[in-house]
Amino acid sequence: MKYKKFLNILLILLFFAFPIFSQQSTRTPLVAYLQDGLWHILDENGKEMFKPMDIAYIGGYSEGFFTIREKIGQDTVWGFMNLSGKMAVPPGAKYLSLFHNGFAIYSTWQPGLEDIKYFGYIRNDGIVLTLPSYLDATVFNEGYAFVMNYAKRGYIDTTGKMIKEFKFGFGEPFYEGFSVVQDSAGHFGYIDKNFQPRIPLTFDEAHNFSQGLARVNKDGYFGYIDTTGLLPIPAVFVMATDFKESRAFVARAAKLDSIRYAVISSGGKLLTDFIFGDVRDFSQGIAAVRENDNWYFINLMGERFNKQNYAYADSFVDGIAYVKEQKGKKRRGYINIAGKFQVIIPQKATVIFDLRLNRLVE
Q1: Taking the CB of residue 285, how many other CB atoms lie within 10 A of it?
Q2: Which end of the chain, N or C, is surrounded by fewer C-beta atoms within 10 Å?
């Protein structure tokens, strides 16, 4: 057993000796799309970064690395690819997360036991922090990650050392000095960076703090608490989003299939009526919203930013946003704030993945 463990570590170190961790390119990935069975990756200027690739899937981009699912015969394996197109595959990796604060999660499982996954961490210089040994693991944030297996559970630091062990329950990553924790009965609350209880476990659901407020669910309805645990925005909404740029979206509905969102300020003031069927977070002072069958952009006051309607629209990042036109040429691609197309995606593309937002946009 000791020999096998040593061999696994040696194999991983050999794989990560492959020089993918020295970056050369300064180009910024924008979007990946599938066309005629090949993946294309464009930079912020709409230029191809690599030759079209015959791979199974692109899982996203963060902190200088793409996660790639590579075809190996009838099987696939996950690996990292840097901005120069060089790739490394951790042995046995069945899944790789994106890098987050310098670390990525990777998982393995035994043949025939896919339901039992084991998670470990890889550092962005290629060093394996922990071999896959945890049954659950969160991303690192503010220096800690929560992990658990049959033997122990709790928070580890960026050296892999268990800093705070829990006897039961679960934890989430830290945001703004607080972490959501859950007891074995399904009640949620918060601890601080000293791992001390700060907000009692009295909620049915709880989410990360963002801009000093956290959305929580109490008796089936969402509201927002502050860092003292008080509810400055009462729990009266059926759905809610996190605050971004001092704005969030909250929803009411007569029925679950009739949910409509409104814009709310961090002071709890409703800035619009409940009219939006779907929404995207505010970014650069603008948010994409859908009213009936039309997507369009609004400003921080909830007013239309321009008169243009789209079949789909998403958040602005670095001055451009993905949209799909409704009529005419039915172009799709990235527009600037003035509404002019900067990058157009070919009509034949079948899968489109925004590499800034790390989500499918079509």
Answers
A1: 15
A2: N
Q: Largest Cα–Cα distance of the chain, in whole Å?
A: 67
- What parts of the chain have a pLDDT lower than 50? 1-18
Contacts of 237 (CB under 8 A, 6+ apart): 221, 222, 223, 250, 251, 252
H-helix or E-strand containing 207? strand 205-210
- Would you state the structure tokens that stand for residue 179, as one six-digit string? 């972490």
Q: 3-class DSSP state for residue 9?
A: helix
Per the CB < 8 A criterion, the answer to whether 362 and 312 are in contact is yes
Q: Is this prediction's pTM over 0.85?
A: yes
282-286 contact pairs (CB < 8 A, 24+): 282/244, 282/245, 282/247, 282/315, 283/244, 283/245, 283/315, 283/316, 283/317, 284/316, 284/317, 284/319, 284/337, 285/245, 286/315, 286/316, 286/321, 286/337
Q: Are the beta carbons of 132 and 107 closer than 8 angstroms? A: yes
pLDDT digits (tens, 9 = 90+) for 40-58: 999 999 999 999 999 999 9
SS3 content of the chain, % helix, strand, coil (to 5): 5, 50, 45
pLDDT at 305: 94
Percent of the chain predicted with pLDDT > 70? 91
Tokens of 55: 């791979």
